Amino acid sequence: MKSKLAILFIAIICFSCSEKSKEKTIETKNSEKPNIIVILTDDQGWADVGFNGATDIPTPNLDKMAGEGVIFSNGYVSHPYCSPSRAGLLTGRYQARFGHDCNMPYDVESDETVGTPLSEKMMPEAFKELGYRTSAIGKWHLGDHEDLWPPAQGFDHWFGFPGGGMNYWGKSKNKIQTIYRNRKVVPEDELTYLTDDFTDEAINFITKKDDKPFFMYLAYNAPHAPDHATKQYLENTKHIEYAGRSIYGAMVNGVDHGVGRIDSTLVANGMKDNTVIVYLSDNGGRAKHADNRPYRGHKGMLFEGGIKVPFSITWPNGIKPNQVYEEPIISLDLFPTLLNMAGGDATKETQLEGKDLLPYIENEVVGKPHEIMFWRSVGGFEYAVRKGKYKLYKSSYKNKTLLFDLENDSYERYDISESHPELMKELEAEYKKWDAKNIEPQWFDPHKENVLKEEKKFQADRRRSLGPKEK
């Protein structure tokens, strides 16, 4: 009898230890910091992914990934074109706060004062404080001068080019249109097609043996011009009869293929469940070949088509799949959201202007992340305010300040400014209050001139279409 009791006692102890071991394993697993990948495309239109309605460009991997998490149907970026949008994304601040309203000047060699200043804390710097290894891959465009390149802004590893545009076959043109790996020039004969090269580099970084979690900023330059694509990707879009759209689509398909390879790598290495993947474009689609429908406008404009982008977040361990979040959010929200996911405390980063989106996604917080959002281009040459369902847009394209009811007119067809003078005053006052905390642009680009040229051509083309009796 005693021996039976002893056996029972030992069994209870073993079972108890086993259960505690399981609890400890689960606790350890849940406390592991997630890997984080922010995938940014360049000039990709709202409707250039299947999960937003594209039917011509095949994006099966992007669609699958978006379905595994949450799609933001009202996902905005903080600026309508490249460099300022990236500055806002990586700092979590309205880039006008530090005068980064423009791309780098096109006709002069920039110095160390032209770009996101080192005084601004970027995402990788915050993640390094949490024990992360950090990587920047692809297009930089936040400072042409080498003192402002990724290694100076918190990235342990860098593979990409400093400037705003690059030949996809890796043909160097100048210092800022050259591929570097950690400040060393990469020989052109080691490059194939940049979209594939960036994917390869990302996979190599992901699979590198290291106990630290990683933060990766993967900024594909596709589908930005020049329009270059491989036979493989062109084959996948040969059904698109318009050649310009077919080539553009092939460039997007190249990104999709790369994302699929990255996803397979994460699965093969047992990393998929605890990896956060963000996907978005830096601004609306470019005027040629991209598709921003059903929204009005394109890259450079503050109409919805210029600032609303494909946007999703996936994290199997932390976000339920098959979600669509409809409240307006902005790229500035990524810094605090990802920081908290990684075990940090975004409330201590007092400079941040975005919101942690996770409590809203999980319905732990009722209401909207933002009651009001702002945009400023070239120091106020153009600006916009969205408050609730209303959007004010001071448009230099149309030489008028417009007002739209986005709830009833999401396509911005009907300007209601004349019938709502008090609302116009209210939103103008909101903008002035916000803009008082900004500084003047610290440098300029040709955006002003380009806007006026584009609108002049637009109006001339419309006049040419009229018959003699209608002119």
Annotated CATH topology of the largest domain: Alkaline Phosphatase, subunit A
Total tally of structural domains: 2
What's the N-to-C terminus distance?
Answer: 110 Å
> In the CATH hierarchy, what is the class of the largest domain?
Alpha Beta
As residue ranges, the low-confidence spans are: 1-30
Description:
The protein is α/β, with parallel strands linked by helices and 471 residues long. It folds into two domains: 34-370, Alkaline Phosphatase, subunit A (3-Layer(aba) Sandwich), CATH 3.40.720.10; 373-464, Arylsulfatase, C-terminal domain (2-Layer Sandwich), CATH 3.30.1120. The chain has twelve helices and 16 strands. It has helices at residues 2-31, 60-67, 82-91, 123-129, 194-207, 231-236, 243-268, 304-307, 334-341, 358-361, 421-435, 447-464; strands at residues 35-41, 70-72, 75-76, 133-139, 157-161, 180-181, 184-185, 214-219, 275-281, 311-314, 323-325, 329-330, 372-377, 382-387, 390-395, 400-405. A hairpin with a 2-residue loop joins β6 and β7 (184-185). α2 (60-67) crosses α7 and α5 (194-207) runs parallel beside α7 (243-268). The protein is globular, with a radius of gyration of 24 Å. 46% of the residues are buried.
